[in-house]
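From the shared-data thread, chain only:
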Amino acid sequence: MRQIQNLLINGLHGRPVITDVYYHQTGKPKPVVVFSHGFKGFKDWGAWHLVAQQFAGAGFVFALFNFSYNGTTLEKPDEFADLEAFGNNNYSIELDDLGVVIDHLLNSNGIVPESEIDTRKLFLCGHSRGGGLTILKAREDRRVTGIATWAGVCSYHRHISQGNAVEEWRKKGVVYIQNARTQQQMPLYFQLYENTMQNMNRLHIEEAAKSLQCPLLIVHGTADPVVLYEEAEMLHQWQPDSQLLPIPDANHVFGMRHPWTGNELPPHAQTMTNATIDFFKNLP
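Structure, as tokens:
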């Protein structure tokens, strides 16, 4: 298996998009899958590398990347070493980052040889808020031929629009959230709210879901305490042609944790992976 790690792709906002790519070099064109991580996530979190390996083994070119403002660095890829960047992240930047990764992979001069890429088959998958991004990107980039959300959110606006809390955020310019794993106080600058409101049309997941022109698989744990299963049902309601796969008793991360030291996925993550591989393989 060929593994390209920490490839630096030029972003649109002054910071590189650090990307890993997994595939088997066969000289035959393969469908491309691009994975987007979630909030307080990163490409090296947990067992995502095992997911990547399984997709590559199933005949895909699989890419996963760090959003350029996710707070990690090239030197410390699994730590939030740049909280200033984290605080200045927003959904528009993340959509643009996803776009430059797609462009690089589908470019004949990209890191993966042209002979290994089937540019007619581009699939996206995303976890949590990364799931919302896949829906938004599929609406604005018609090269996308299929998408899957893993514990995906159905709205960005309602998660940050909370009445009096917004006014307090505006006055202070920043709010802090605690990272339960690292105990870090992580800043969110008010620009996140401003950018979300200013780009409401581009970031409106409901409208994007309703207007999707490609197949959608929704995978969600019924015991998810972070993004409730009801959000998956909302996505399915907005896009009735989608496939909804509930995983009984699965949590938000499908049984994974960080760090992950095993060589196998936990059962719920394996179910998620198998279902998505089968879904993409069966698309025309």
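The domain at 2-160+201-281 is CATH 3.40.50.1820 (Rossmann fold).
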